[in-house]
Fold each of these.
Amino acid sequence: MSVKLDPSLFCILVLLRCHFISGISEFTDPCTDHNGITDEQANNAFKDWPENLNLARVNKTHKCYVTCILIYYSIVDNYGKISLDKYFDNGSIDEYAFAPTLLRCRYEYRKETDLCEQIFGIFNCFKQEKLLSGKV
């Protein structure tokens, strides 16, 4: 059994495929240490997060370090997709209270193409919201 594909439909499918491929940035792994990150290292990176942090003053190495911690703990993947289902499921994070902040922060950094800049920016946005609301 063979299926004949309409040439115009085929062209549209090829164009869509090319658009999605070109829209996805090339995979770059910002994490050089694949041996793991200790809980102590992770906690130290997030301890005493400064209020009103000026992102322009944070060096890229630190942004990537924080991103790697979030990747290591499966909070985000190597493509920037945030996955908090396990935290929602076990009740650590109230999904309904968290969703508006997450959506706003993701929207704010939607055009950022650098993974470290994007993930650090989203995380900082969320932390700033928590600091302002006093729920750190």
Amino acid sequence: MDRTPTTTEPVPAALGRTFPTLMAASLSGRVVTLPDDAEGDVSLVVLVFLESAGPMAESWSGPFVGAFTENPRVKTYLVAVIGDSLIGSSLADRIRQGLAGGTPPAEHDRVLIYPEDIERCRRAYAIGDPSLAYIYLLDGRGIIRWMEKGTATPEGLAGLLDTAGAMLEPFLV
């Protein structure tokens, strides 16, 4: 049973600002720079620091991907911040292998490993509690249009999906 408290709380980072640049290697080995490489009009970026935040991340990304599966203008990125310097390279390699084994190969370009200093990353993305998942919805220019942290609630998911839908609306035929 998941004992993680359900939270829907805005992240204190500045809504309406450009997502801070993040350069990471995907599971396929491709170097991805966010928000620059976030092709499309809407991108969901989910940051996790601990394996225990995986179910939180999935609580947001699963329904989001399901809602927009057929839309090529919508992208989803899972970013695992593993901080090689703190956990050691052998544990970081095992985390990479675990993520690769649990992710379909077609999605390897959108699962990113960010091996930077965890404290620097926490400051850049306004991360207060690294045990939570942090969710950012970006527009095509990399501007943060919606953000939350923790486990999805029905209200939080409705807000995420409504915001993404409204961002796509002007382009629907």
